[in-house]
Amino acid sequence: MIHIFLNGLAASSGAGLTYLYNVVPKVSNSSGVRTTLAVQPWLRQKFEGLQNVQLISPSGLSGAIERFLFEQRRLPELIRHSGANILISTGNFALRRSPVPQILLSGNSLYTSSVFYRDLRSRREYGMMIGTFARGIFAKRSIHWADQAIAPSQAFADELRRWTKREIAVIHHGFDADIFFGGHKPLSEQINKKLRETEGCLRLLFVSHYNYYRNFETLFRAMPLIQQLLPKKRVKLILTCKLQRTTNPGSYDPRQAAKLVRDLGIADSVVEMGAVPYESLHHLYRACDIYVSPAYAETFAHPLVEAMASGLPVVASDLPIHREVCCEAATYFPRFSCECLADAVANIAGSLQEHSRLPAGRERVINFDWEEHVRHLLCRAAAMDRAKDGPLEDDKASYVTHLPGERFLEAAKGTEYVPNT
């Protein structure tokens, strides 16, 4: 029996929540594994009732600074009290003095993105720039504090390796079709009303809350060009956010983006749905025609996998991570070229019925499996726990992590763990 302390206190939106929603139930179902899960109080009900999972939900952690101080000062004692063997930290920051071996899941590419810093400077977001730089210092140190750092993609692992001069393991994030398509919660009547108003239009979908690094502005500048290239078809851009300051997580200011929409004269073509619950999201994908992502920084890009699984053609900026996730199943464009983006969308729109990349997209999704992710992660945890008693003889990790779920812990007894030194 291995006992894992999973620190999910940083999960509040986007990829962090997607990770917990998919991974925690699978860890719960893993034979020979107990879990203590730390999450924010408002998330507690999502995980109540899971077998072999004990919940800790500290209150009063209203911001990143309060959470970080709590983690560094009080979490070690909670870990000791829980009796856990291994700590898995999910929020980019490790404990400086973890009482047990620690795996750090690194997942924020903004700390290593020079483009993001230039963007902040151009927007005069000096406070955010200083804050990101300061958090980046601790994120970099965290990779040194942890016994093992893991990235969700090879592209991001390469960035972290250049940044920290440390070896970074790679375990791809996954996709669970049963969970994603199994949600029975319908779209709200308000969203369905907006979809009915766009019937007969070409619907482009972009799933993201508003932020700077998702590069909304390039997509907005492409909209008039797309409409010019498709004069016989009304084009609508479906957003899962609203361009209002109080409706998005974080401190990103959407007012300039909203002004750009007005200045371009595309307000009638941009449909702001607002946040869509994860359980309902598959309905929105299937109601749209093409998925578009102009992001200039990413770590894994879950929506691309969701779009491919939903049968949507994908148009994505030419980031290494986008190419790693989609391979030949997407059309790529230079990330700040609205002209190339418009050309790509128009070319796909002209042959939607017989679009050749759809089978490739669905085949590509098979490579991303949360069950496989959990097997790899738990195998590493078991090997680290075993390594406390001294080095082991054979490195069988590549074999062990592909075994059926009930056997991986037994097999991990013969797996060598190499610490992050």
Features:
disordered C terminus, 13 strands, single chain, seven-stranded parallel beta sheet, 421 residues, alpha/beta, globular, 19 helices, six-stranded parallel beta sheet
Overview of this structure, please?
- With 421 residues, the protein is of the alpha/beta class.
- Helices cover 44% and strands 13% of the residues.
- The chain contains 19 helices and 13 strands.
- It has helices at residues 14-28, 44-47, 64-73, 75-82, 114-122, 126-145, 154-164, 177-182, 189-196, 216-229, 255-264, 281-287, 302-309, 320-326, 338-349, 357-365, 370-387, 397-400, 408-411, and strands at 2-7, 33-38, 53-56, 86-89, 102-105, 148-151, 169-170, 202-206, 235-239, 270-272, 290-293, 314-317, 330-333.
- Strands 3-2-1-4-5-6-7 form a seven-stranded parallel beta sheet, sandwiched between helices. A six-stranded parallel beta sheet has the order 10-9-8-11-12-13, sandwiched between helices.
- α7 links the parallel β6 and β7.
- α1 packs across α17 (370-387).
- 45% of the residues are buried.
- Mean pLDDT is 89; it is low at 391-421.
